[in-house]
Design a protein that fits this description.
This protein has 325 residues and is α+β, with helices and mostly antiparallel strands. It contains 10 helices and 12 strands. It binds adenosine-5'-diphosphate (ADP).
Length: 325
């Protein structure tokens, strides 16, 4: 039942016994591989070094699994019953992936916060108390914009972290989706700079949905505001609510430029933006769709993205069972 691979090695590192996990992690089969030298089965220079070094409890090496190269194993050798040695291997793939994600995340956050700070810093260095008012006047809106950006990003980060921690117990209420979509459409229409867009509602159902009101509003608003922000003036954005036998869907469709196929799967990644400068102009942090995904996860719902380059995009939220409605 042990999840770690365990191999008992005798003289010359020959296999004397191995557990089930040794088969799936290291490809070492017991009893077929009995008396085969371990270094013939695990061909990794670091492992060979470990095998020929004096035993030290704290020494570990990382090797790729001989049967699945994408699987990363932590391997150590300890003394066992007199002259024997025990090889222990643990699957660390997930832990290593998480460590990488954390590193990338910290690097991304630092970079994203640093950019607006550099702008502010630049202006502040330029000015002295004697600088003429006109000079300040021109710089202030830019400085203000940059602080807004930082503020928006920190808000998004806090939302994400709260969603991830799942600290707040989710209160679900019966939501009037028709009302919700009307209200979000109104908000979208009032977004500054984007008032030339046409927002349409296609409400096939008047069913209510059991959901957390704030989270659902935030997820749908994110999709609708994106549809407005990333499409040219005069584009049409359609919000649709439909219920079928198997599921209920909220769809947000636009007839903008669409998203290239190679970007479709990546846009829900944190900080991923197709056009960084455009996203910055629109105040985007690249965190919006990550937030949407988390919220939907809380609601056992899924997001599907369909987009044809040049023809527009469709973001569809699928809510599962009908008894929730
Ligand atoms: P942001 O904060 O940058 O808007 P999101 O996570 O909400 O971040 O979106 C990620 C990226 O996906 C955006 O920067 C944009 O490039 C792209 N995107 C999102 N929605 C659309 C859309 N409706 N049409 C075209 N591109 C979109």
């Amino acid at each position: 039942a042990l999840p770690d691979a365990v191999v008992v090695m005798g003289e010359f590192g020959k296999v004397e016994w191995a557990n089930k996990a040794a088969q799936s992690l290291l490809g070492i089969h017991w009893p077929q591989d009995s008396h085969v030298r371990v270094n013939n089965l695990i061909r990794d220079p670091e492992f060979h070094q470990l095998l020929h070094s004096p035993i030290s409890k704290n020494r570990v090496v990382f090797v790729s699994s001989p049967i699945r190269s994408e699987q990363q194993l932590e391997v150590k050798i300890v003394n066992y019953m007199g002259k024997g040695r025990l090889l222990i291997a643990r699957d660390m793939t997930q832990t290593i992936k998480l460590q990488e994600m954390r590193r990338d995340f910290v690097a991304n956050v630092s970079h994203e916060l640093r950019t607006p700070l550099t702008v502010l810093h630049g202006y502040l260095e330029m000015f002295t108390t004697e600088s003429p008012v006109e000079q300040w006047g021109a710089a202030l809106p830019v400085m203000q914009q940059q602080t807004h950006r930082m503020d928006a990003m920190i808000k998004d980060l806090l939302t994400l972290s709260q969603l991830e921690l799942g600290e707040k117990p989710l209160e679900h209420q019966s939501i009037n989706v028709v009302e919700l979509l009307h209200s979000i459409a109104k908000d979208a229409q009032q977004l500054q700079q984007y008032q030339q867009h046409i927002i349409e509602l296609d409400l096939e159902s008047d069913a209510f949905l059991l959901a957390n009101s704030d989270e659902l509003r935030s997820a749908v608003s994110n999709l609708v505001f994106n549809a407005v922000k990333y499409t040219p003036e005069g584009s049409t954005v359609t919000l649709r609510w439909s219920v079928s036998k198997n599921n209920a869907c909220i769809e947000v469709k636009d007839n903008g430029p669409g998203i290239r196929p190679e970007h479709v799967n990546r846009i829900t990644e944190r900080f991923f933006r197709i056009d960084k400068s455009r996203s910055r102009d629109t105040g985007g942090s690249g965190l919006g769709l990550s937030i949407v995904k988390h919220v939907l996860h809380h609601h056992n719902a899924e997001l599907a993205i369909e987009s044809k380059w040049g023809k527009g995009s469709e973001f569809i939220i699928y809510f599962e069972a009908l008894e929730k409605i």
